[in-house]
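May I ask for an example protein's residues together with how it folds?

___
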Amino acid sequence: MKKICVMGLGYIGLPTASLFAAHGHEVLGVDVVDSVVETINAGKIHLEEPGLYTLASAAVGSGNLRASKTPEKSDVFMICVPTPLTEKKSADMSFVEQAAVSILDFLKKGDLVILESTSPPGTTRDLIAPLISGKGFKVGEDVFLSHCPERVLPGRILKELIENPRIIGGYNEKSAEVTHELYRGIVEGPIFLTDCTTAELAKVMENTYRDVNIALANELGHICESLGVSAWEVIELANRHPRVNLHLPGPGVGGHCISVDPWFIVEKFPEKSDLIHLARITNDAQPEKVVEKVHEIFKNFDRKPSVALFGVSYKGDVDDIR
């Protein structure tokens, strides 16, 4: 059993910390928000996720999980903090950097540092590794380092943390092997080992793939509108082909990941990501097109109408409104 310090107790950090605690590890969850720390230490949770309350409260009750605002010496440090976009559509890595810096004074030889936060390709190698080296450790020998991206869906997080295939990207081969030893205790799905940069790119490409295909569907919607035909019928008929699976058009993309991750590639490779960039522009423009359509409908009213908006979260049965 290991002592694990999880930096960040949000949608990924808290379920991950609870799961490791449930498997017998001593887990310290660290968050900068006082109310989050107090809520978890009281055996409660601050977000909605099926099964999480039962798991987290049991972990706290057993003494295997507790929360704090500051890290402690541990065997494993997991960084699960946000990586939002700036107004200039670049990755804000300040939370990752702050989390990494905050654990440096607690590192010792033999420790493992894992970056779970979705990050631009090269982050583990170019941001985290130099910070660890700056404390006098040889990365991959004294302190092991990996990127292990989460691949879960809100509403199914606990189930998918256990069952989904997992990618482990090691700074070197030994780091990947040490990380695999840890995760194989909670992951029932297959685990694939690679290098950290490949793992980072694989994660952001998963959501980029979806974004590009959604953009294609949205463009098709505009074309069908111009032609005066039903996009739904076109898609239904086209998908009768055994090798075609068109998505459905809509008001853009929701959630935290799909509208963010592709920009990480565009930021790093602006000259080589024309298609990805165009998909982002296409999908980001969809909400305005919805508003335009509503205004067209308004013209049929003699008076100023009331508007009811059904649904605030990005999909049903989750409390995530990002």
About this structure: The chain has a mean pLDDT of 95. The first helix runs from residue 13 to 22.
